[in-house]
Specification:
By secondary structure, this protein is α+β, with helices and mostly antiparallel strands. The protein contains two helices and two strands. The chain has a two-stranded antiparallel ribbon. It comes from Exocentrus adspersus. This is THAP-type domain-containing protein.
Length: 75
């Protein structure tokens, strides 16, 4: 029964580039940490403006996206 539910679920997509594990060159898609302090570290490393109280725990980042390589713009 659960196999059918999982088969219909969409693969998580990267917040930065929109890639999923189905795309060529993407090995993993990682979820943002649930803990606020660790999520803040990830956001700072990617150049995403950290806003207290706004959680990115339901968003993902792919293995292709390089930490700290984003431009000076904020997402």
């Amino acid at each position: 029964f659960y196999k059918f539910l999982l088969a219909d679920m969409p693969f998580p997509r990267c917040l930065v580039c929109g890639s999923s594990v189905n795309d060529a060159g993407v090995d993993h898609v990682h979820r943002f940490p649930r803990k606020e302090q660790k999520s803040k570290i990830w956001q700072d490393a990617m150049g995403i403006k950290y806003i207290p109280g706004v959680s990115l725990k339901n968003y993902s980042i792919c293995s292709v996206t390089k930490l700290g390589s984003s431009s000076s713009s904020t997402y």
